[in-house]
Design brief:
Elements (H helix, E strand, L loop, with lengths): L8 E3 L3 H6 L4 H13 L2 E4 L5 H19 L7 E2 L1 E6 L11 H4 L2 H11 L4 E10 L27 E7 L11 E3 L13 E2 L9 E2 L1 H10 L12 E5 L3 E3 L9 E9 L9 E4 L3 H5 L8 E4 L1 H7 L16
Parallel strand pairs: 1-2, 13-14
Antiparallel strand pairs: 2-10, 3-4, 4-5, 5-12, 6-10, 6-12, 7-11, 8-9
Helix pairs in contact: 2-5
Protein name: Phytanoyl-CoA dioxygenase
InterPro entries: Fungal_Metabolite_Diox, Phytyl_CoA_dOase-like
Pfam families: PhyH
């Protein structure tokens, strides 16, 4: 049996796999095993740096605009960590980021054919503001509602820069996505509250003796795939630069989540040009998309549940 490390498994595709947009059977097996056992894997070197840089420049500008709203910004748990959507328009909508074929291959193997992509946002850790104390998020789960006990949703995270403990790499608690560690019984707070999904303190202390958390370094160009149920926490950014991480959720095809993406019609050829995912979309004009995408809720205000 593989030793239960606090650090996540990293898969490095070969050049041939990268060009094909598909992992070979051995790497795919490793990815599936890591998600079942740990609840999180890292796939390195699959997103071109130029695509990341182009989007990061825009999203850093947007992050500063959101920060200027003060207490009205869509923050998650504390004002150093904000919910931030990427611009849903063609000029920033790179398929290597939003529709990465290797990410979709992995989520398909875990969830079934044509997972549903119904959520697209981001999480930005802001640099410290003079006179304020940097804060971390409480350890929490994003599944802060009644949910299945088997895999039903995977978060595809795309860091836009290299992630380190200094700039707020996410703290992860591997192996906490299943069994007695998952479910409403381990949580404080009700769904819809800004601080819902918090893991009870005594359970954190117990888990620490078995398998503690880690704050891994994630290289630029990587994709992180995480089970929605996994315990994790946003950490303070002690650097001088904004740290942006995208978050796309792929739900199992049988999971009856009713959310839809809101995308500009300019992205339609890109979305409809792929066949790996089902993508429920409300199409809007580019002008409307640009007006609306920065006026979203905070993370826990979204409804990831399924209808009866």
């Amino acid at each position: 049996m593989r030793r239960a490390s606090s650090l996540p498994m990293t898969i490095t595709p070969t050049g041939q796999e990268y060009i094909a947009g598909q992992l070979n059977s051995r790497n795919l097996e490793q990815a599936v095993r890591g998600l079942h056992e740990d609840g999180l894997i890292v796939v390195s070197g699959v997103v071109p740096h130029g695509d990341l840089d182009h989007l990061n420049t825009k999203m850093v500008q947007d992050a500063r605009a959101l920060q200027a709203r003060g207490k009205d910004m869509p923050f998650n748990y504390n004002v150093g960590n904000i919910q931030q959507d990427p611009p849903p328009v063609k000029s920033f909508f790179s398929s290597s980021i939003f529709l990465n074929p290797i990410a979709s291959q992995i989520t398909t193997c875990m969830l079934g054919p044509k997972p549903k992509w119904t959520f697209c946002s981001g999480n930005t850790a802001l640099p410290p503001v003079e006179g304020t104390e940097p804060q971390r998020q409480p350890v929490h789960t994003d599944a802060d509602y009644a949910h299945p006990t088997h895999p039903f949703a995977l978060v595809v995270n795309v860091p836009l820069i290299r992630f380190t403990p200094e700039n707020g790499s996410t703290e992860v608690w591997l192996g906490t996505h299943t069994g007695d560690l998952a479910g409403l019984q381990v949580q404080d707070g009700a769904h819809g509250e800004r601080a819902s999904g918090r893991i009870k303190k005594h359970l954190l202390e117990q888990r620490m003796t078995v398998r503690g958390p880690s704050q891994p370094v994630i290289e630029k160009g990587s994709i992180v795939i995480r089970d929605l149920r996994l315990w994790h926490a946003g950490m303070p950014n002690l650097s001088r630069d904004e740290r942006v991480m995208l978050a796309m959720i792929h739900f199992a095809p049988w999971y009856r989540n009713q959310m839809k993406l809101e995308l500009s019609e300019s992205t339609k050829p890109i979305v409809e040009g792929q066949s790996q995912l089902e993508v429920p979309v409300q199409w809007v004009s580019e002008e409307m998309a640009e007006e609306r995408y920065l006026n979203r809720g905070f993370g826990n205000s979204y409804d990831f549940g399924q209808i009866a």
